[in-house]
Automatic annotation (TrEMBL):
The keyword Phosphoprotein does not apply. GO terms for cellular component: nucleoplasm. This is O-acetyl-ADP-ribose deacetylase MACROD1 isoform X2. GO terms for biological process: DNA damage response; peptidyl-glutamate ADP-deribosylation; purine nucleoside metabolic process. The lineage of its organism: Eukaryota, Metazoa, Chordata, Craniata, Vertebrata.
Amino acid sequence: MSLLSRVSRRLAQLRVAGQLLRAPRSRPGPSAGARRTRSSACGSPASLGAYGSRAPSPARVGAWAAAAVGWRSRVRTWAPLAMAAKVDLSTSTDWKEAKSFLKGLSDKQREEHYFCKDFVKLKKIPTWKETAKGLTVKAEEPKYKKDKQLNEKISLFRGDITKLEVDAIVNAVDGCIHRAAGPLLTDECRTLQSCETGKAKITGGYRLPAKYVIHTVGPIAHGEPSASQAAELRSCYLCSLDLLLEHQLRSAAFPCISTGVFGYPNAAAAEVVLTTLREWLEQNKDKVDRLIICVFLEKDENIYLQRLPHYFPVDLLQPTGPRSQL
């Protein structure tokens, strides 16, 4: 007999017992021998209801009730695990149902549905404070004051953004994210209609390790970007961060928006990104745990390693000058 069937049967027995306790004793009492026989039989819950107004003791009813409550709690605990083993997000066709299902899972249960096994947990991504240890940069006056707390809120990561287990990753027209998340992401995106340049919208992450995907559209800028294009790029990050707060998310990873086929110069984009993230964190540092700048190319990594110390100052090693020959 299944656990649910046993629980249902026991609850029905308890209802019968409650009715018997409240029922008046209108029938004449049985003989002493019959009482002894029936008293021994009352140890079996299945025999309830066969003895007229004779009911088990309140203590026994209380014990059965406690057992039933315990079984019901175990059912609630085991049910999501059983569902998680049966649902296949790669073949599901209802994005609303899948999205609701994923919200009910723990982080450990969600792992069973990731498109990859080599995902990267947030705690494995070093903070900028950790990355900067041992770096050597040219002496230059930083643009902002040193803030140890902010240096632990920002990270530079080179690798595949689709494998990061964070609350949200930002998608700037990237087909790789759609392929990794599966067709349900595309289905939900169709309901969002279009997204204007500089704006952002949010969907579920589905088969991604990230719980959500924030979609944004950066400006197209071939050559020197204009002031309006810089403002649009800044808006991409700010609108994405607004969604982060709106949905009470604590971690997010950003790609290099607009620097690919959209032609925005890599170094110029980095200045916009670092200024935007620094100023935003100064106002919202207690509302997030980590913002990750995720780069794929070595040249982008080098640009950020050179520029991060000026926006997020740390104690860096200074380059050693030529030694005196005297």
